[in-house]
Automatic annotation (TrEMBL):
<keyword id="KW-0238">DNA-binding</keyword>
<protein>
    <recommendedName>
        <fullName>Zn(2)-C6 fungal-type domain-containing protein</fullName>
    </recommendedName>
</protein>
<feature type="domain" description="Zn(2)-C6 fungal-type">
    <location>
        <begin position="46"/>
        <end position="76"/>
    </location>
</feature>
<keyword id="KW-0805">Transcription regulation</keyword>
<dbReference type="GO" id="GO:0001228">
    <property type="term" value="F:DNA-binding transcription activator activity, RNA polymerase II-specific"/>
</dbReference>
<dbReference type="InterPro" id="IPR001138">
    <property type="entry name" value="Zn2Cys6_DnaBD"/>
</dbReference>
<dbReference type="GO" id="GO:0008270">
    <property type="term" value="F:zinc ion binding"/>
</dbReference>
<feature type="region of interest" description="Disordered">
    <location>
        <begin position="17"/>
        <end position="47"/>
    </location>
</feature>
<dbReference type="InterPro" id="IPR053157">
    <property type="entry name" value="Sterol_Uptake_Regulator"/>
</dbReference>
<dbReference type="GO" id="GO:0003677">
    <property type="term" value="F:DNA binding"/>
</dbReference>
<dbReference type="InterPro" id="IPR021858">
    <property type="entry name" value="Fun_TF"/>
</dbReference>
<dbReference type="InterPro" id="IPR036864">
    <property type="entry name" value="Zn2-C6_fun-type_DNA-bd_sf"/>
</dbReference>
<keyword id="KW-0539">Nucleus</keyword>
<keyword id="KW-0804">Transcription</keyword>
<dbReference type="Pfam" id="PF11951">
    <property type="entry name" value="Fungal_trans_2"/>
</dbReference>
<dbReference type="Pfam" id="PF00172">
    <property type="entry name" value="Zn_clus"/>
</dbReference>
C-alpha cells in the first residue's frame, strides 16, 4: 500500500480542531506578562493587486515581492519617485544594473519567449490561460508589463485593431500561429498589445515602457532582416506583418493638444521624431512592391483580395495614372498644385498624392471606401512629396490635411486621436496662409473634394 509522502503534502489540520494558543509567560509576581506589540506601518502606496486582496504590500518597485512570488500582474496606481516621468527610454530598461547592456537584455528577454512552443501560444490566444506561463527563476525583473499579460491580451488586441475582416482573420489564422518562430514578429505583437493597454490605461508606466521596449527590439530585428543580402520568400509575409505592426504602433498617440504637433516645432531633430509616424509608412510601400513581385505569391495578396468592400477599379498600382485620373482632381486643387495634362509623377511631386486622394474621395462617395484604401496614401506617396511635407510646404500640407479628413468618422483606437489632432493643427496653420486659394480650401475642404455628379 503506497504511503503518503509528508514532505510533498506538508502539514494539514481539520477546520474543527481547536487552535493552539501560545502559553502566556508569567512575570516574577506570578501575573501574566504583557507581550510587546510588534511595530507595523500601513501600506498606503501598495500595488493595486495587494489592495484588491486586502494584504500588505512591501511596495517594492517595479514589482512587489508578493506579486513577483505569485507571478501576478503588479501595477501601481501612482508612479513612485523612482519612476520619474522624465526617465525616457533609459528608464524602461530594468532594475538589475548588471544587465544595463541593452543587447544583453534583449537576448535575455527573447530567451523567455523562445521557450514557448507555438502550440502553447495558440492555446493561450484561442482559449486563454488558466494559469500564468512559467517564468525562469533566474530571469532579471524588468520595469515592464509582464509578457504573459501581453500575450493573453493579444487576441482581443487584434480584434479591436483591425477594421478589415480579412485582415483580422489573416492575423488569427496565419500570423499568430507562427509568431513564436519569428523574433521580430513576436516583439512587434507584444508591442502592439502593450500599446493598446497603455491607450486604455494612460497612467500606467509599465505598459508604456513595455511597448517602447518591444518596439525598439522589433525594429532592430526587422532592420537586421532587411539588411540581409537576400530575403527568403517564406519570410516576406512575416516581415510585412512586422512592418505593419510597427506602423500601427507609430501611428497611435494619446496627445490631444494640436499645438504640440510637429507643425509647430522648429528644431530639426524634434520634427523628425514627431513626424516619424508618417515617414515610416514608406517601408510599407517598399515591401508591398516586393510582395507583388514574389513568384510564389503572398498570403497578404490572397487574403486581402477577398475584401470586396474596396472596388477593384480603384486599387493602387505601380503604373502611371491614366488621363481619367486627372478628371477626378478638383480644378482648384489642380491649379494650386500646378497640375496640367503634361504633369507626371516624375516632374510634379504633388501629382501622385493628388491622384491618390482623388481616388480615395471618389470611392468613399460611391460607398466602396474603407480604412485600407485610405491608409494606402502614406505608403504610396513619392519621396519628393515627403521632403516637401517635412519642410512644411503649404501645398504639401494642404494635401496632407485632405488625407486626414478621410478619417473624420474613424473611431479605431490607434487612428482617431492622431488624425484629429494633426488635422486641427494643419487646418489652423493653413487658415493663416498668404495664398487666398489655400485659405479658402482650408476653411471648408469638403466643398472642393466633392466628386462631380456626372463622373
Amino acid at each position: 500500500m503506497p504511503t503518503l509522502d509528508s514532505p510533498i503534502f506538508g502539514r494539514f489540520r481539520l477546520d474543527s480542531a481547536p487552535k493552539r494558543r501560545a502559553q502566556r509567560q508569567l512575570s516574577t509576581t506570578g501575573t501574566p506578562a504583557k507581550q510587546p506589540r510588534k511595530p507595523h506601518t500601513k501600506s498606503r502606496n501598495g500595488c493595486s493587486t495587494c489592495k484588491r486582496d486586502r494584504v500588505k504590500c512591501d511596495e517594492a518597485r517595479p514589482f512587489c515581492g508578493r506579486c513577483s512570488k505569485r507571478q501576478d500582474v503588479c501595477i501601481y496606481e501612482k508612479p513612485s519617485g523612482r519612476l520619474r516621468d522624465d526617465d525616457g527610454l533609459r528608464g524602461m530598461v530594468l532594475c538589475d544594473q548588471s544587465l544595463d547592456n541593452r543587447a544583453e537584455l534583449e537576448r535575455a528577454d527573447w530567451l523567455i519567449e523562445s521557450g514557448l512552443k507555438s502550440s502553447l501560444i495558440n492555446i493561450i490566444l484561442n482559449h486563454g490561460s488558466p494559469q500564468p506561463l512559467p517564468r525562469k527563476v533566474d530571469t532579471p525583473g524588468t520595469a515592464l508589463t509582464p509578457n504573459t499579460h501581453l500575450v493573453q491580451h493579444l487576441a482581443r488586441c487584434i480584434d479591436t485593431s483591425f477594421q478589415s475582416y480579412p485582415g483580422c482573420q489573416l492575423f488569427h489564422r496565419f500570423v499568430l500561429p507562427n509568431c513564436a518562430a519569428t523574433p521580430a514578429l513576436m516583439h512587434s505583437l507584444l508591442a502592439l498589445s502593450a500599446r493598446q493597454l497603455q491607450h486604455l490605461q494612460p497612467s500606467c508606466r509599465l505598459h508604456e515602457r513595455a511597448y517602447l521596449f518591444h518596439t525598439q527590439v522589433a525594429t532592430r530585428l526587422l532592420n537586421e532582416e532587411l539588411a540581409q543580402a537576400s530575403i527568403a520568400a517564406q519570410k516576406l509575409d512575416f516581415i510585412f506583418a512586422t512592418c505593419l505592426l510597427i506602423n500601427m504602433i507609430s501611428f497611435a498617440t494619446n496627445e490631444i493638444d494640436p499645438s504640440k504637433s510637429w507643425l509647430f516645432m522648429s528644431d530639426s531633430a524634434s520634427i523628425d521624431n514627431a513626424l516619424n509616424w508618417f515617414m515610416v509608412q514608406q517601408g510599407m510601400g517598399y515591401l508591398s512592391k516586393i510582395l507583388s513581385r514574389n513568384p510564389n505569391g503572398s498570403v497578404w495578396n490572397t487574403e486581402l483580395d477577398a475584401d470586396t468592400s474596396c472596388n477593384p477599379l480603384f486599387v493602387i498600382s505601380d503604373d502611371l495614372p491614366s488621363y481619367s485620373d486627372l478628371e477626378l482632381i478638383p480644378q482648384i486643387l489642380a491649379d494650386i498644385c500646378c497640375i496640367t495634362a503634361d504633369s507626371t509623377p516624375g516632374n510634379n511631386p504633388y501629382y501622385m498624392p493628388l491622384v491618390l486622394l482623388s481616388r480615395a474621395f471618389r470611392i468613399k462617395s460611391l460607398g466602396f471606401g474603407n480604412l485600407n484604401s485610405y491608409l494606402s496614401f502614406g505608403p504610396h506617396v513619392p519621396q519628393s512629396y515627403r521632403v516637401l511635407l517635412r519642410q512644411k510646404d503649404e501645398r504639401a500640407l494642404l494635401l496632407f490635411m485632405l488625407w486626414l479628413m478621410l478619417f473624420q468618422e474613424e473611431t479605431c483606437w490607434w487612428i482617431s486621436a492622431r488624425t484629429r489632432n494633426e488635422y486641427a493643427g494643419v487646418s489652423w496653420l493653413l487658415g493663416r496662409s498668404e495664398d487666398g486659394r489655400i485659405r479658402e480650401v482650408a476653411r471648408d475642404p469638403t466643398t472642393f473634394v466633392r466628386p462631380n455628379p456626372s463622373g
